[in-house]
């Protein structure tokens, strides 16, 4: 356990907002770059023009996950010149519930002592032993937080309830590793929605494609554009005009999904998509089924498609990975939209290059 945490935890930092209204990066362990400090100051709600308090935020930047818990300082606290503060954890893994629990404990410790020293002791304890415990501030045990629970924490049924048959557009975009941008003005909503989407392609169990809180900032957009396919969440409605950022645009407040012109050919819907869409909707509407069971139903259908696709692959040379036999696919005489989907899926699964 200790070795695992030592591999996953990257650092802890502290941002304070003082009685003058200034938000400053005041401490970190072991160290961080100026670039990451600027990013985290931008992400935490203490530097925002509005006074809205977001108790917990998370996101990813250049393969580093960040988790930010923010608290208001009560009058009884040892922190006399501070009105609010944020504890920031940077890690290599996606697990919001785990790091929300840990940062809450660190916040309580900082409120009590008003010094980072005690907070750092708990951080080191988790780093080396995977545990920190205190009767007053609560206990944290890393092994209590299975990453698979984090993957299934969102409600796939809620997404399907909102978008119905159009959910298959999101499924197709994910299967083909397209760029999905999601907009909503409320941070918590955008994070809850985006974190759930990778479950539609459960066979990959890849949450590295998730960027749940992105600003229209040059550094962040440059980093995002380096990713071949992603799910990116924005709270700025101006993102709808950034056609260079997305293949599929989701306007959550309006429950609208827009497919960009540049991928319409790859995203053409046909009989197979209708079949998948119906399965998705019927599974979600079954009140007896949990979210995880709906995810399993979609995953089983995905495996069926991939097995079918694998039957059209061949190994041309010893030692090479299988590639798509396009002639064999043609001979099967699938409907054009199905053939088109399988062809682009083969490219996404790296069975051929197009």
Automatic annotation (TrEMBL):
Q: Which InterPro entries match?
A: FAM45, Tripartite_DENN
Q: Name one GO molecular function term.
A: small GTPase binding
The record, for Pfam families, names: SPA
The UDENN domain is annotated at 1-354
* Transmembrane helix listed as a keyword: no
Alphabetical UniProt keywords? Endosome, Guanine-nucleotide releasing factor
Its transmembrane ranges are none
One cellular component term (GO) for this entry is: late endosome
Q: Where in the cell is it found?
A: Late endosome
Question: Organism's domain of life?
Answer: Eukaryota
Which PROSITE patterns does the protein's record reference? DENN
Q: Name one GO biological process term.
A: regulation of early endosome to late endosome transport
Which family does the similarity line name?
Belongs to the DENND10 family.
Q: What is the protein name for this chain?
A: UDENN domain-containing protein
Q: Which organism is it from?
A: Varanus komodoensis (Komodo dragon)
């Amino acid at each position: 356990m200790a070795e695992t945490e030592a591999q996953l935890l990257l650092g802890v930092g502290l941002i304070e907002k003082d009685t003058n209204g200034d938000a400053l990066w005041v401490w970190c362990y072991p160290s961080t770059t100026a670039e990451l400090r600027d990013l985290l100051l931008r992400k935490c709600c203490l530097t925002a023009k509005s006074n809205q308090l977001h108790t917990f935020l998370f996101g990813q930047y250049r393969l580093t996950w960040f988790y930010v818990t923010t608290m208001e300082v009560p009058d009884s606290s040892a922190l006399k010149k501070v009105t609010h503060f944020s504890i920031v954890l940077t890690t290599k893994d996606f697990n919001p519930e785990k790091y929300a629990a840990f940062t809450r404990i660190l916040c309580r410790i900082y409120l009590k002592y008003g010094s980072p020293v005690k907070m750092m002791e708990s951080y080191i304890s988790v780093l080396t032993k995977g545990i920190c415990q205190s009767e007053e501030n609560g206990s944290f045990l890393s092994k209590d937080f299975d990453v698979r629970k984090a993957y299934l924490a969102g409600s796939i049924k809620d997404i399907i309830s909102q978008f119905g048959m159009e959910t298959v557009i999101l499924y197709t975009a994910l299967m083909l590793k397209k760029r999905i941008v999601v907009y909503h003005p409320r941070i918590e909503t955008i994070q809850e929605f985006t974190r759930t989407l990778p479950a539609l392609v459960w066979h990959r169990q890849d949450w590295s494609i998730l960027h749940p809180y992105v600003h229209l900032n040059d550094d962040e957009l440059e980093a995002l554009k380096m990713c071949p396919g992603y799910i990116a969440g924005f709270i700025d409605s101006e993102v709808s005009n950034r056609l260079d950022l997305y293949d599929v645009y989701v306007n959550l407040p309006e429950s609208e999904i827009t497919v960009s012109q540049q991928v319409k050919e790859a995203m053409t819907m046909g009989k197979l998509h209708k079949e998948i869409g119906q399965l998705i909707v019927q599974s979600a509407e079954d009140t007896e089924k949990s979210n995880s069971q709906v995810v399993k139903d979609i995953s089983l259908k995905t495996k069926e498609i991939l097995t079918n696709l694998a039957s059209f692959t061949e190994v041309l040379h010893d030692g090479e990975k299988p590639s798509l036999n396009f002639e064999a696919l043609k001979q099967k005489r699938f409907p054009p939209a199905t053939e088109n989907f399988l062809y682009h899926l083969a490219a996404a699964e790296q069975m051929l290059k197009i």
